[in-house]
Design brief:
The structure holds two protein chains of two kinds.
Chain A: E1 2-9, H1 32-60, E2 66-70, H2 72-81, H3 83-94, E3 98-101, H4 117-133, E4 139-140, H5 149-157, E5 162-166, H6 169-172, E6 181-183, E7 186-194, H7 196-203, H8 218-226, E8 232-238, E9 242-243, E10 246-247, H9 252-264, E11 270-271, H10 274-277, E12 285-286, H11 302-305, H12 308-327, H13 330-339, H14 342-346, H15 355-363, H16 369-390
Chain B: E1 11-15, H1 26-40, E2 44-48, E3 61-64, H2 91-103, E4 113-117, H3 122-132, E5 136-140, H4 144-147, H5 154-166, E6 169-172, H6 175-185, E7 192-194, E8 214-218, H7 227-237, E9 245-249, H8 255-264, E10 271-275, H9 279-287, E11 291-294, H10 303-310, E12 315-318, E13 331-333, H11 338-350, H12 352-367, H13 371-388
Helix pairs in contact in B: 1-13, 2-3, 3-5, 7-11, 10-12
Classes of the chains: A alpha/beta, B alpha/beta.
Chain lengths: 397, 393
């Protein structure tokens, strides 16, 4: 059994409060001070200590592997707030045992807007990985681990050899998630699946004292991994799991450090990067005619497009995209793309009840989904004005 | 908050102020609603009031007032307690007369708890509770500091303080108010409970012409209500929204000053002062409004906002209002920030999806807990007070 440890690094450009009365004022939509302040805090608590521990594990355990995805907005913020975090990622890549993954530059919902947005964003991201890290990724992950047959076809068209997806029973049709599969409509694209119970043991449950397995030690976890039947076990989670979602006091960083040793002690257990894991024949083909994600109980796009506010905002940003493209103004296009980042829609999630509400509240940068929507729509309305202005269309209001 | 049911029916003497239909403010409505639910739970209430009625009857509520039984309810004015005061400054003498009558009240039978609302009857309520050897519970709806915007009358402060010091349990209508009672009145935190107000579902649920754009404020026109901010916000919007009406319903000491302010801001055409409106008129107004605004500088609770939410009108409240504590579906704004109020109003006018979503969420929040829950919480406080008596207040 090979462990595929994949960690996702992303920070969005959060919006400043952009009031309705700010329309036409020329003010920036994004609060750089606040975004960079948040980044610096997370760099202290999570990025630096966790990256250092990963590098140490790579140095002391030749069999250890880790895979990372790093969004374009993350790199932009890191350059301004904590450039040493990028040096630490480079050090990991230099070991030759850290794979980087391709995705949309803006961690965006580009896969739901008309072409060529998705292809352009993935190309931007590829070129950024080449420039910053000298990496040429073979495996694609879509925002929020979105996956569908259409996305597999896209991956094939862009010459990727693999994609990540949620190992969700709904699409596995009785197959175990612990094997390599290939996409039914694009057989050259291998699929690596997230083992969500074992991933969430670390990602969500690690620090929960109400959990009957608390506390989770590296040895116990390695035993669970070793006793899981199959060839590959995908542990896919946010990088911020280590030191941010679970603070250092919970022991999560020690857990991260201790895991390679614990795995080493279990016979038959090893590591694989995503690029190693896609090598070899697939067990079966998988077909997913709808779009799946890694979020919430339903594993759909409900967390981003599940309610009227989210759908209304998304329809609006799609529509504004048409005039933005026609305007031909690169600054306007960049702002529009930052507004396509999925996090903005996540902040508009409303649910009075259910297990997911706590998770959403934790990740939101607003007091309420109504604040998030109103603020987003103001910024978008302003962007639309700018684009129309550029096109010489008279603005009525 | 415990909401256990009482082991037996309780007899509560409520030292009140107004009661419908002759009420001018929220306290009368509160007394009426909470009493109605308490009697539904099987408890009995003797309601004391300085007014001679008439009183909207409620089964299980007996009314007592100075001058009875020789004075028939509704038949004589001024009521007996008024005699000590003059036409110019009757208030503190009137309060003294009422309190003396309360303290000496006979013939109430066996009583479990004396419950006083706000400052007016605290001296009498305390004396009555001591004489009957039962606990005193006090509900604070607002404080003199807030009503006077920091320039309190000493004689009212001393009455508030006497109630807070003498009550075995104090009920505050918001967490914000509870903190004020602890900070300003040195109330023992262990004795202060929070019970929010509630509203009943509006009878009028259909919306009047949703294309009409009306922004509504309903409330007293007093300095603490922050209506200036609302008018300044309106002035920012008038150039962009020439079709929107900014309605101000209510009366009060600031009435003419606010009309002058509207005129000097150049929004006379679009700011409409309605004066006092009846309950029915208010429901009609709510049904025809796109946005409700409560810009209070100080607002211990803010029942008007909860009523607007219950009617499905998206609502903007000041952050310091008590109602903000239980309404995540309302926009919350600093009371001084006219720009932000203006922006929030514009956002609700401009984005119909937002208006619908907030209207729906607001209605759910306003109605998820009603007067029955509040009455059960109140009984919980009575039981606490009864248990802890003997161990000293």
């Amino acid at each position: 059994m090979k462990i595929v440890l994949y960690l996702h690094m992303h920070q969005p450009w959060r919006l400043a409060r952009f009031r309705y009365l700010d329309l036409g004022s020329g003010r920036s939509y994004f609060d750089n001070d606040r975004n960079l302040g948040i980044f610096r805090g997370i760099a202290d608590r999570c990025y630096r200590p966790a990256l250092d521990r990963l590098l140490q594990s790579l140095e002391t355990h030749p069999e250890f592997r880790v895979s990372l995805s790093v969004t374009g907005t993350f790199v932009e913020q890191a350059k301004l707030a904590a450039p040493d975090v990028l040096d630490r990622i480079r050090a990991l890549v230099r070991t030759g045992r850290t794979s980087l993954l391709a995705e949309t530059y803006y961690h965006s919902l580009a896969f739901l807007v008309p072409p060529p947005e998705l292809a352009e964003e993935v190309a931007m991201h590829r070129s950024m990985l080449q420039t910053e890290f000298g990496a040429q990724p073979k495996v694609l992950r879509m925002t929020e681990l979105a996956y569908s047959d259409d996305l597999a076809r896209f991956a094939e068209s862009q010459r990727f050899s693999g994609m990540l997806a949620e190992g969700w029973e709904g699409m596995l049709r009785g197959n175990p998630p612990t094997y390599r599969y290939c996409a039914a409509p694009a057989p050259t694209v291998m699929l690596l699946l997230r083992h969500y119970p074992l991933s969430d043991d670390v990602g969500f449950r690690f620090s929960s004292k109400a959990w009957n397995e608390y506390p989770l030690t590296a040895d116990k976890y390695a035993r669970w991994l070793a006793s899981t039947p199959g060839e590959l076990v995908g542990l896919f989670m946010d990088f911020e799991t280590f030191g941010e979602h679970h603070s250092a006091q919970t022991g999560i960083l020690q857990f991260l450090s201790a895991l390679p040793d614990a795995v080493h002690n279990e016979p038959g257990l090893g590591w694989a990067s995503v690029e190693e894991a896609i090598q070899g024949p697939p067990r079966d083909t998988l077909s997913v005619p709808y779009t799946m994600s890694w979020a919430d109980q339903n594993r759909d796009l409900g967390a981003w497009l599940g309610n009227d506010l989210q759908r209304s905002a998304f329809e609006a940003v799609k529509k504004v995209g048409l005039v933005v493209r026609r305007s031909g103004d690169p600054a306007i296009l960049t702002d529009w793309r930052k507004l396509l980042t999925s996090d903005h829609f996540y902040y508009m999630y409303v649910s009075g009840h259910g297990a997911d509400q706590g998770v959403h509240q934790y990740f939101s940068s607003y007091d309420s989904p109504y604040d998030a929507y109103a603020n987003y729509m103001n910024a978008l309305s302003d962007l639309r004005r700018r684009a129309l202005d550029k096109l010489g269309v008279p603005i009525l209001k | 908050m415990r909401t256990v049911s009482a082991p037996r029916p309780l007899h509560i003497v409520m030292v009140g102020w107004e009661w419908p239909p002759g009420h001018t403010g929220g306290l009368g409505v509160h007394s009426f609603e909470i009493s109605k639910e308490l009697t539904r739970l099987g408890h009995r209430i003797t309601f004391l009031t300085p007014f001679t009625g008439p009183f909207t009857p409620v089964d299980g509520v007996t009314f007592r007032f100075p001058g009875e039984p020789t004075v028939t309810p509704g038949k004589q004015y001024p009521p007996a307690y008024w005699s000590g005061g003059t036409a110019d400054s009757p208030f503190s003498d009137a309060a003294d007369g009422y309190n003396a009558w309360v303290g000496l009240l006979e013939g109430v039978g066996k009583v479990d708890v004396v419950h006083v609302h706000d400052w007016f009857g605290t001296f009498g309520g305390k004396a009555l509770a001591e004489r009957l050897q039962v606990p005193l519970v006090m509900t604070v709806h607002s404080t003199e500091y807030d009503r006077s915007l920091g320039h309190p009358w000493d004689h009212i402060l001393s009455r508030e303080q006497a109630g807070i010091d003498g009550a075995t349990r104090v009920i505050a209508v918001s967490r914000h108010l509870r903190q004020q009672l602890i900070d300003r009145y040195h109330a023992d935190p262990h004795r202060v409970r929070v019970i929010y107000n509630a509203v009943r579902p509006s009878q009028r649920l259909e919306r009047i012409d949703p294309t009409k754009r009306v922004v509504l404020y309903v409330g007293r026109l007093a300095a603490m209500k922050g209506v200036d901010t609302y008018l300044r916000a309106a002035a920012r919007l008038v150039p962009t929204f020439p079709d929107v009406l900014f309605v101000i319903a209510g009366e009060g000491p600031e009435y003419s000053r606010l009309i002058h302010l509207a005129a000097s801001l150049g929004i006379g055409d679009q700011a409409m002062f309605l004066g006092k409106v009846s309950d029915e008129e208010r429901e009609v107004l709510l049904a025809g409004s796109s946005v409700f605004v409560l810009p209070s500088v100080v607002e211990p609770f803010g029942i008007a906002a909860l009523e607007a939410m219950a009617a499905g009108v998206p609502t903007i409240v000041s952050k310091t209002s008590g109602v903000a504590e239980i309404s995540s579906g309302a926009f919350q704004v600093d009371f001084w920030d006219a720009e932000e109020f203006a922006s929030r109003i514009a956002e609700l006018l401009e984005y119909p999806t937002l208006r619908a979503a907030m209207g729906e969420q607001g209605r759910w929040e306003a109605l998820r807990e009603g007067w029955p829950e509040r009455a059960r919480e109140t009984v919980g406080v009575y039981l606490e007070a009864m248990e802890s008596r003997g161990r000293g207040p």
